[in-house]
Amino acid sequence: MASIPISPFGAPEMSDSDSSWTLDKLLASDLEAGHAVIDALIAALESAGWLGRDLFHVQMAIEEAVVNAIEHGNRRDSSKQVHVLFHVSQDHAEMTITDQGEGFEHWNVADPTEDERLDKPRGRGVLLIRELMSESKYNDKGNSVWMLKRRSAEEESSEEESD
Amino acid sequence: MPTYRRITVVDDAGVSIVQFVDKKIVDSATIEQLGEELNSLVTVEKRNMLLLNFEGVEFMSSAALNKLISLNSKVKAAAGRLKLCSLRKEIKEVFVITRLDRVFDLRKSVEDAMESFKL
Prior knowledge:
The complex is a heterodimer.
Chain A: E1 13-14, E2 21-28, H1 31-47, H2 52-73, E3 81-88, E4 92-98, H3 124-132, E5 135-138, E6 144-150
Antiparallel strand pairs in A: 1-2, 2-3, 3-4, 4-6, 5-6
Helix pairs in contact in A: 1-2, 2-3
Chain B: E1 7-12, E2 15-20, E3 24-25, H1 28-43, E4 49-53, E5 59-60, H2 62-77, E6 81-85, H3 89-97, E7 105-107, H4 110-117
Parallel strand pairs in B: 2-4, 3-5, 4-6, 6-7
Antiparallel strand pairs in B: 1-2
């Protein structure tokens, strides 16, 4: 049985039947608060047996989504909040991050992998979320992203990649 | 010589081998400081043969990637060479997805990277 993760937000909801964990929280628009919920999410995933590549993928995507919401969405405006809704079980992780910003044209983000844009800082977070998650979707306005990661059937062996 | 808090630097055969102090490069203050320290290797210390050894680095965000891109420009401007080595498989995958594997010279190990500096 997975142990209940220690969260700064009090006892997480962990049901005995399926070891699932849910966090529904409004955050201040600062990165410290953002990283506290990311740490809680990672702890919950580890408790549910996630590891390796799957865990890394969720960590990468949630980092991009939460930092984007705070920095680009709410522009660190202390009067605005970020709503995070996380649900973790042994076989999937679902995360919705919503900010109170203006949103963005998520269908119109320049491809950061084009040669002339490779050295530009923008657009990589959106790309990474799309590539690393099993599914992801923005609302029309672009101030809310939903992400789903299905855990791989079997953790890949640590075979060496040839360079 | 500047004091570094986010990196350690060892010189070997004309190459500055840089290791990261932090296992997880996510905190924005850490990333800012890391970026300044990396840039200072080139702009203040005038080092232009750099090897970033990622051994022990478990995680880095795209904000940290941006600092590496900025370092790469500075090294190029100084007519130097920058290589990265010993990246965890998952971090290497991030370079591949973002196509930054075409911008950076990624090497398997310190030994492999040091050999390639001789070419």
